[in-house]
Amino acid sequence: MNGALRAPHVVAFSYRRSVGGADRRFLSGLAEAEIWGSRAADGRVLVPPLDHDPETGATTEEFVRLGEVGVVRAWTWMAEPGPEHPRERAFAYALVELDDADTALLHVVDVDNESEMSTGMRVRADWRSVRVGSILDIRAFVPLTAVRPVSGTGRRAGRGTIPRGEASVSVEVVADIHLEYMYEPGLVASAFLRSIAERRITGGRCSSCGGVYVPARSRCPACRVGPMAEVELDDRGVITSYTVVHVPFDGMTLELPFVSAWVRLDGADVSIPHLLGEVPPEEVRVGQRVEAVWMPNDELAPTWESIRYFRPTGSAPEPEDTAATCDG
Ligand SMILES: [Zn+2]
């Protein structure tokens, strides 16, 4: 039983944000099957539109509506798309410079085969029938010859400009964040987690200042001396700080309200965070003595969740600082 533990971790959440300025013009335009850019003071047309000219920092002058036909300036073939890609089968990512634009936008070019791609090829936007104000309202760009013939002046007739600041519908963007990674806590924290799986709590004592840290660190945070000597601690201690949680959050498995507390175990010089149980939130006090309530022995594992929560032991709150045992 040594070496570092490993565990898969997932961080996932969604958040909404509203966008303004050029982003709002661009996204609300896409919902109407229109592509908008912005014109800089020197006349260059930037697509997607920007609020500020990246070269001068000056505010761009007006929004410009463009056609949906352009030219591929650069591309790369995605032979094996992953779950993060907008298509399931092979496709090209390309920088597409729309006619009358001076910058290129990144998008998908939908062709069956890499051999159909070339720099300089002409493409047009292929729109989804249901659009929501997203860059993916353009399903993909497709070779100009492969779809219905362009009516030529049809889209051009719809072109125009509007001054900056003219109100357009507000656009909300929902971003789904999903991060998967392997977590390796390191050798010292792994030893701590293994002790938890044996219903023990271990810490480390600094050979220089005598400070006791739970969990142990590889070196003393105060004097940077290491390694620390392992010490075993009781699973009892005192509340040093707490928070009553009333606000729900995604993925929550507890009933509201619940209490999150910092507990300084007897013999330790730092506090550890955990949940409190078997006590109404309004009766929690700093200085209250608590003890760990463990999972059943056959459910113990190298995780902090092997302690279900801490609960008051019934003893009266302690006078301040009687639990500190710094030998240094
Ligand atoms: Zn130290």
Can you walk me through this structure?
The longest helix has 11 residues, at 21-31. The chain has helices at 21-31, 153-156, 187-197; strands spanning 7-19, 35-39, 45-46, 62-66, 69-78, 91-98, 105-109, 122-127, 138-143, 161-163, 171-183, 201-205, 212-213, 229-233, 236-245, 258-265, 272-276, 289-294, 307-312. The protein is built from three helices and 19 strands. It has 328 residues and is mainly beta. The strands form five sheets. Strands 7-6-5-8-9 form a five-stranded antiparallel beta sheet, with no helix packed on it. Strands 17-16-15-18-19 form a five-stranded antiparallel beta sheet, with no helix packed on it. The protein has two domains: 19-164, no CATH class; 186-312, no CATH class. Zinc ion is lined by residues 206, 208-209, 211, 220, 222-223, 225.
Provide a brief overview of the structure:
The chain has three helices and 19 strands. It has helices at 21-31, 153-156, 187-197; strands spanning 7-19, 35-39, 45-46, 62-66, 69-78, 91-98, 105-109, 122-127, 138-143, 161-163, 171-183, 201-205, 212-213, 229-233, 236-245, 258-265, 272-276, 289-294, 307-312. The strands form five sheets. It has a five-stranded antiparallel beta sheet, with no helix packed on it.
